[in-house]
Amino acid sequence: MRSKSREELIDITKEVERFVEEEGLRDGFIVMYVPHTTAGLVINEGFDPDVGRDLMEMMRKLIPRNGSYRHSEGNSDAHIKSAILGESKIVPVRNGKLLLGTWQRIFFFEGDGPRNRRVILGAIHS
């Protein structure tokens, strides 16, 4: 996938659902992993876009881009945000459907874009 901004949340729920279908995963778990140190995964409300905007705004306030960091590449804030959000998630699957809450969606967090990024998906059948 290609991110478009330095920081953004990209809803990847449909892509994950497509993977579940293509894998023929009826019951088990979907494992998601981001092999990047300035990106992460978030599961949160996706129907009100203000939730995502609030999350991004609060992360910027708590972890500013221009803090007193020792890392010299100019993306220390992205590393910290990625570490806090995490690089992996596991979601149960029952009857071929992700067991997300009513309002939950799966988001890829970009912290140092725009870049080409990957989300590695795996299926655990039970």
Main pleated sheet = 4 strands, antiparallel
Shape estimate: elongated
Return the string of H and E elements: EHEEHHEEEE
List the strand order in the largest sheet: 5-4-2-7
Overall radius of gyration: 15 Å
Mean pLDDT: 97
Number of helices: 3
Count the strands? 7
CATH topology: Jelly Rolls
CATH superfamily: YjbQ-like
Name of the CATH architecture: Sandwich
Estimated helix fraction:
25-40%
What does the model show?
This protein has 3 helices and 7 strands; from the N terminus they run βαββααββββ. The chain has a single domain (8-125), classed as YjbQ-like (Jelly Rolls, Sandwich). The strands form 2 sheets. The chain has a 4-stranded antiparallel sheet, with helices on one face. A hairpin with a 2-residue loop joins strand 4 (88-94) and strand 5. It is α+β, with helices and mostly antiparallel strands.
